[in-house]
């Protein structure tokens, strides 16, 4: 929303609660005007990182820079960030319009002007008709849009979203994520979105930052993180990958890049342990030497041309360029 | 049983209904009936008469006593509210751990382990002419002569009321504050609200129902009281409760009943007005 596109940078940011280390010297430069997902299992430090950027949690060590300005010790409203809370945290006693106008009221903007500006924001999220309702009278999706409008009215350079879709039912979740994505494009500001769902991160993000055990495991464009995981954790957390130990080291390979051939003609021999029909694909689970499990996703037409059954011996093939060496 | 669901329903409510009917409704009806009787020094005449009400509404004493009762109620309310809200706010928002919250909350209730009368009487040696308060003030050189208005005055009455009833404000307000989602405070701070603005725009409106419940407690307790006023004012001030207790001491039951009915109506109207402002149903 501001003229110049600003970027946000974390410089070895650390957060300790007593002796427990929640975030361990994390450094990362977020791309300007992009949609970034902080992805990881619960307790990995992603929420603490977000809350430190927002200013709701103090930084133990390190700095947070926004537009080359150290914001680590500024109060939340002075940082140029705005946060959308997990349960939306709408004020239950205020109407939708007054919720959105809240920050302007705090700044001392007079009633007429702040209502006009809030009405503009409501138009952006398509809620003009519900301006006079109380939050309790809205559905989950509508509440989320109010929370969005309330965060955006402060004209932030970075919008922080803390698991924004987790309170919605699965159908609505898919719809709202499209809306979030479109809104980010329309506003041209950075969105940083914390989630533990890899499908959500893949669908939304320009860039995915995978966190585990208080550190960043891997960061990069969504396709790169999914297609070429660098560590065993990322491969397993993103899903759809096999981690195989070969003489040259550990490798990740996507399940749909593994082919099934008759026994004796593949790079690796195995026997089928289970078959699962998944619609477009059939998942063939097999055991190879060294007691390792390998899953191959075979297109259903190809599978039913030459079906296999548990106990059958098969060969597994892959293209060497699809193997990605893991560093950890 | 399935064939007669109505009967089951009635049977289930009947124990409580009977208790309330016998111990609440019946006595009030009885008081209402007696209030229309008349009495002489030595007998009570069970015949319908407006005499008690005529006397009550015709006497200027009634109005000044009711006024005094309202004065006590309003001043006590203002003080218990400010103290109670502050304590509840401190406990709910400044004490971080739940263990400490519970411990300090229990600490507030300790005075309630002794009886009302004892707590009231223990003020007397403290506030008296040669009491601890006066001797301390004199020895510090704050005053030259003992202060007369410390005991047996409106000051003493209100002090005792505040001491006795502040907890009735603390409990419901603390209770509603504990239910405020902490992320609302963060959201307000994110929107740039200062501590004072958060208090005024978020916490106060969301605590309204607790404040109202505390208000009802304090107002009804103060308006119905007679013993505190008698002890602490040294029988120099009167409220409606004392009017009734004096009538009873003189065996003027019909007159006492009439005053009681008027007091009951006054309190009910006061509460009805309070409830117009705040919906407390979500608290119950």
TrEMBL record, chain A:
Keywords: ATP-binding, Nucleotide-binding, Transport. Residues 8-238 form the ABC transporter domain. InterPro entries: AAA+_ATPase (IPR003593), ABC_SmlMolc_Importer (IPR050093), ABC_transporter-like_ATP-bd (IPR003439), ABC_transporter-like_CS (IPR017871), Mo/tungstate-bd_C_term_dom (IPR008995), P-loop_NTPase (IPR027417), Transp-assoc_OB_typ2 (IPR013611). SUPFAM superfamilies: MOP-like, P-loop containing nucleoside triphosphate hydrolases. One of its GO terms (molecular function) is ATP binding. Pfam families: ABC_tran, TOBE_2. GO terms for cellular component: ATP-binding cassette (ABC) transporter complex. GO terms for biological process: quaternary ammonium group transport. This is Putative spermidine/putrescine transport system ATP-binding protein. It comes from Loktanella salsilacus.
Automatic annotation (TrEMBL), chain B:
The keyword Ubl conjugation does not apply. GO terms for cellular component: plasma membrane. One of its GO terms (biological process) is transmembrane transport. Residues 66-274 form the ABC transmembrane type-1 domain. It comes from the Bacteria. It is found in: Cell membrane. It is a multi-pass membrane protein. SUPFAM superfamilies: MetI-like. The chain crosses the membrane at residues 12-37, 72-92, 104-126, 155-177, 198-223, 256-278. InterPro entries: MetI-like (IPR000515), MetI-like_sf (IPR035906). It holds the Pfam family BPD_transp_1. Keywords: Cell membrane, Membrane, Transmembrane, Transmembrane helix, Transport. The keyword Signal does not apply. Belongs to the binding-protein-dependent transport system permease family. CysTW subfamily. This is Putative spermidine/putrescine transport system permease protein. It comes from Loktanella salsilacus. The lineage of its organism: Bacteria, Pseudomonadati, Pseudomonadota, Alphaproteobacteria, Rhodobacterales.
């Amino acid at each position: 929303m501001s003229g110049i596109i600003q970027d946000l940078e974390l410089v070895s940011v650390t957060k300790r609660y007593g002796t427990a280390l929640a975030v361990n010297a994390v450094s990362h430069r977020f791309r300007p005007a992009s949609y970034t997902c902080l992805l990881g299992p619960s307790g990995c430090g992603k929420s603490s990182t977000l809350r430190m950027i927002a200013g709701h949690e103090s930084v133990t060590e390190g700095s947070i820079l926004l537009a080359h300005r150290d914001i680590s010790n500024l109060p939340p409203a002075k940082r140029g960030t705005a946060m959308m809370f997990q349960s939306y945290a709408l004020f239950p006693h205020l109407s939708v319009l007054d919720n959105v106008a809240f920050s302007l009221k705090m700044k001392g903007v007079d009633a007429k002007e702040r209502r006009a500006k809030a009405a503009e924001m409501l138009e952006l999220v398509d809620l003009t008709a519900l301006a006079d309702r109380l939050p309790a009278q809205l559905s989950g999706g509508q509440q989320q849009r109010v929370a969005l409008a309330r965060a955006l009215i402060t004209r932030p350079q970075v919008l922080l979203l803390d698991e924004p879709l987790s309170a919605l039912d699965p159908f609505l979740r898919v719809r709202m994520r499209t809306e979030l994505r479109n809104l980010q494009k329309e506003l041209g500001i950075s969105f940083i979105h914390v989630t533990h769902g890899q499908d959500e991160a893949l669908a939304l993000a320009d860039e995915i930052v995978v966190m585990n055990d208080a550190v960043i495991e891997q960061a990069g464009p969504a396709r790169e993180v999914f297609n070429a995981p660098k560590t065993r954790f990322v491969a397993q957390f993103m899903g759809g990958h096999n981690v195989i130990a070969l003489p040259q080291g550990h490798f990740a390979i996507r399940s749909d890049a593994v082919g099934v051939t008759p026994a004796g003609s593949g790079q690796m021999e195995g026997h089928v342990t289970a078959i699962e029909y998944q619609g477009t694909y059939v998942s063939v689970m097999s055991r190879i030497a060294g007691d390792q499990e390998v899953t191959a996703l075979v297109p259903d037409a190809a599978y039913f041309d030459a079906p296999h059954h548990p106990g059958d011996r098969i060969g597994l093939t892959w293209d060497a360029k699809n193997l990605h060496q893991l560093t950890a | 049983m399935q064939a007669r669901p109505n009967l089951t329903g009635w049977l289930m409510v009947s124990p409580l209904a009977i208790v309330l009917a016998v111990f609440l409704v019946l006595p009030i009806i009885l008081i209402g009936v007696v209030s229309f009787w008349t009495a002489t020094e030595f007998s009570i005449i069970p015949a319908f008469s407006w005499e008690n009400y005529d006397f009550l509404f015709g006497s200027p004493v009634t109005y000044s006593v009711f006024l005094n009762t309202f004065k006590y109620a309003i001043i006590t309310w203002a003080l218990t509210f400010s103290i109670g809200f502050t304590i509840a706010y401190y406990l709910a928002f400044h004490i971080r751990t739940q263990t400490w919250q519970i411990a300090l909350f229990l600490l507030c209730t300790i005075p309630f382990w002794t009886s009302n009368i004892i707590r009231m009487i223990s003020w007397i040696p403290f506030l008296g002419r040669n009491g601890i308060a006066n001797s301390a003030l004199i020895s510090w050189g704050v005053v030259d002569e003992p202060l007369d208005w410390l005991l047996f005055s409106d000051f003493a009455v209100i002090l005792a009321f505040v001491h006795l009833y502040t907890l009735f404000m603390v409990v419901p307000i603390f209770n509603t504050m504990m239910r405020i989602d902490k992320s609302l405070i963060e959201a307000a701070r994110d929107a740039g609200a200062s501590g004072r603005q958060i208090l005024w725009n978020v916490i106060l409106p969301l605590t309204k129902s607790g404040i109202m419940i505390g208000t009802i407690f304090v107002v009804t307790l103060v308006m119905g009281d007679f013993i505190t006023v008698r002890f602490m004012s040294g029988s120099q001030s009167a409220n409606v409760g004392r009017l009734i207790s004096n009538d009873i001491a003189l065996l003027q039951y019909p007159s006492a009943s009439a005053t009681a009915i008027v007091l009951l109506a006054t309190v009910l109207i006061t509460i009805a007005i309070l409830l117009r402002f705040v919906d407390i149903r979500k608290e119950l």
